[in-house]
Structure formats: structure tokens, C-alpha cells
Specification:
The complex is a heterodimer. Chain A is mostly helical. Chain A is built from seven helices and no strands. The two termini of chain A are 41 Å apart. By secondary structure, chain B is mainly α. The radius of gyration of chain B is 19 Å and the shape is globular. Chain B starts with a helix and ends with a helix. Classes of the chains: A mainly alpha, B mainly alpha. The interface between A and B is large, with 76 and 107 residues.
């Protein structure tokens, strides 16, 4: 487990450093994803079995465990909402209404485009 | 030790609020599981509501709370890197959907940002709130960067981002069922784009394919919104 934690931290650290150095408008962990993908893919190529679980080793169960509990990780940031929204008091209902409408529109637009384009390109 | 002095000690100690965060989430998640993962019984929403009420009831500032909760918050980075594993596992289905993903990203990113900003202008909200709404669909770290660039209050932006995530996680399942969309790649991609990590967390609870597409959409939309938001705001503000 400890080596797996080190791998995730190292990928994130490399990602954050790269973002700082180049000024890319991407979060460091997103670059970290690409570094980890590249690393595991290379190990998969050179391993005899080409098996993903072999190549990822203990990183796979750790990653799955973290992602299973991803919701928990948003709780600390979420608890700041009440204090922050209190500062814009009278505008809160309108802001929430806008968020609901805009989220519905974004979900519908994204999913219908995805399905329509796949039908057009003959994928389904 | 008197009970009040014990409370004075505990309420300021990081250990206490860290424990409250983890324990509240476990309770909220049990509740969600007992409801058969009903979309309205969202564990983030329940845990946040409970802890916020506790903070208000005990007169604890968010700063004091966060000193303990930051240890959980910190794991967001490594958990994002962890998305590499389900992406590798589902590389075939990802590769088969490259064109639909590119099209959905372009349309979704513009609608997510444009509809929020457009409605805010329509309703006559003050300019700094209009700007704070622009990055509401992207992951917190990027949203803060965008907010600073376009002159929005980063604190308000974060609140709107988290609220959007919870709204998306709650409405995605009933909305997709209403639209009769059964494809988990498409459903996941939509919720990751519109509701970033909190939507992605919900998608992982439903299916690994949905979670993988959600994670990818979250990363891609962060990039597109960071590039488009300054252009949109400059055009809007003339």
C-alpha cells in the first residue's frame, strides 16, 4: 500500500511541477493522470502478460478504493458553502435557480450531442 | 475535567472535526445505501447539511473546521490521479467514443458556461456574480484560477462550484431516466462535464464505465472552460 501511495503522490507532484513550470491552464492532478497512464501503459507493454492488473500492481486497488469514496473528499469544501453564501444573502435563491436550470441544460445538451454524434458516426 | 473545558479543547482540535467529517460521511453513506442509492439521498448533501448545522449550532468558524477537515480535502489530488486506473481499464470503450466525446465536450462546455452567464445577465445580477457563475461546472482548483483571471470572487466561485456539483449529482439519474438514455458512457460524460468531481463520484456509484467517462469529461471541461471563460467575459463586458 505504501508504494502505491508514493506512486500517486509522485505523479501528482510531477503534474503540479509541470503546470507551474509551463503555466498550462490545467490542474496538476490532471497532468498526474496522464503521467500515471503513461507509466502503467509502458509497464504493460514490457511485461510478459500485458495484464493491466500486473502492470499497475498495488496502485490499482488503492485507486479503486479512493474512487469508491470520492464523495467523502468533497465534504470539507462543501461545508464552506453556508458561510460563503450567507455573504451574498438576498441573491441566494436566484443564484440557486440559475444553477439548477444551467445544470439541467448542460446535462441535456451534452448527453444528446454525445448520442446523436455516435449515431451519425455509425457507432451505435 | 469539566465538560465545558473539554469542549473548548475538542472544538479547536483538528482531530475532532476530522473525526466528525469521516463519521458523518459514513452515516450519510449508510443512509444512501439503505435508500437503494436514491438520487435525492446524496451522501455529500447529507453530510454537508449535517456538519454545517453542527458548525452553526456550536458557533464554530469554517476556518477552525477546515483545520481538521483539510486532511480529507488533501486526498482530492491523489484521488484525481487515481482516475488513470479506470481509464486504462476502459481504454477500448473510450477509444470507440472519441468523436462523440469531442462533440459533446464542445457543445456541453459552451452550454454549461453560456447558460449560467446568460441567465445571470438576464436576471440583472451584479457583474461580479455573473463572472463567479462562469466556471461553475469545473473542478474547484481550475475554477479558482478562472475566477481570479476574470475578476470574480474566488470564495463565491467555490461555493457555486460545490453547489453545482451537488445539484448535478442529485438530478442526473432522474433526468437521464426521463430522457430514456441508458448508455452509461453518455450519462457519465454528461455528469462529469456539468458537475465535475461530485458528479463523477455519483457516476462511480452507478457504474465504473459511467465514472470513467465522467472523470475524463471533468478533466477536458476544466481545460476548455479555462480557455473560453476569459474570452466570453471579455466579449460580454465589451
Amino acid at each position: 500500500m505504501l508504494p502505491a501511495i508514493a506512486v500517486l503522490l509522485l505523479c501528482q507532484l510531477a503534474g503540479e511541477s509541470l503546470v507551474r513550470a509551463t503555466g498550462m491552464p490545467v490542474p496538476g492532478p490532471v497532468i498526474g493522470i496522464m503521467i500515471l497512464i503513461a507509466g502503467v501503459a509502458i509497464r504493460q507493454r514490457v511485461s510478459a502478460t500485458h495484464d493491466l492488473a500486473d502492470a499497475a500492481g498495488p496502485v490499482a486497488p488503492l485507486a479503486d478504493g479512493l474512487l469508491r469514496n470520492l464523495s467523502l473528499l468533497f465534504v470539507p469544501a462543501g461545508c464552506g458553502i453556508a458561510e460563503r453564501l450567507a455573504e451574498v444573502g438576498p441573491h441566494v435563491p436566484l443564484l440557486l435557480l440559475i444553477l439548477v436550470i444551467s445544470t439541467v441544460l448542460a446535462l441535456v445538451a451534452t448527453v444528446t450531442t454525445f448520442i446523436a454524434v455516435r449515431r451519425l458516426t455509425g457507432g451505435d | 475535567m469539566e465538560i465545558t473545558s473539554l469542549w473548548v479543547y475538542l472544538s479547536a482540535a483538528p482531530l475532532f472535526w476530522l473525526t466528525v467529517t469521516v463519521a458523518s460521511y459514513i452515516a450519510a453513506d449508510r443512509l444512501a445505501a439503505a435508500s437503494g442509492r436514491h438520487p435525492l439521498v446524496n451522501p455529500v448533501l447529507i453530510a454537508v447539511a449535517f456538519i454545517s448545522a453542527l458548525l452553526i449550532a456550536t458557533g464554530t468558524s469554517y476556518g477552525t473546521y477546515f483545520e481538521g477537515a483539510q486532511f480529507v480535502h488533501f486526498l482530492l489530488g491523489p484521488a484525481t490521479v487515481a482516475l488513470a486506473i479506470p481509464m486504462l481499464r476502459n481504454v477500448a470503450v473510450l477509444r470507440a467514443n472519441l468523436i462523440p466525446m469531442a462533440a459533446a465536450l464542445a457543445v456541453g462546455a459552451v452550454v454549461a458556461m453560456g447558460s449560467a452567464v446568460g441567465l445571470a445577465v438576464l436576471f440583472g445580477l451584479p457583474q461580479e456574480m455573473v463572472a463567479a457563475l462562469a466556471p461553475k461546472s469545473v473542478t474547484t482548483g481550475i475554477a479558482i484560477g478562472v475566477a481570479e483571471q476574470i475578476g470574480a470572487d474566488p470564495a463565491l466561485t467555490v461555493a457555486l462550484v460545490i453547489a453545482t456539483g451537488i445539484i448535478g449529482a442529485v438530478i442526473v439519474t432522474p433526468l437521464m431516466n426521463l430522457l430514456r438514455i441508458k448508455d452509461y458512457a453518455a450519462r457519465g460524460f454528461a455528469v462529469g462535464l456539468a458537475a465535475h468531481g461530485i458528479g463523477t463520484a455519483r457516476a462511480f456509484q452507478v457504474s465504473e464505465v459511467a465514472g470513467t467517462f465522467a472523470g475524463l469529461a471533468m478533466g477536458l471541461n476544466a481545460l476548455v472552460t479555462a480557455l473560453l471563460a476569459p474570452l466570453l467575459m471579455r466579449w460580454l463586458m465589451g
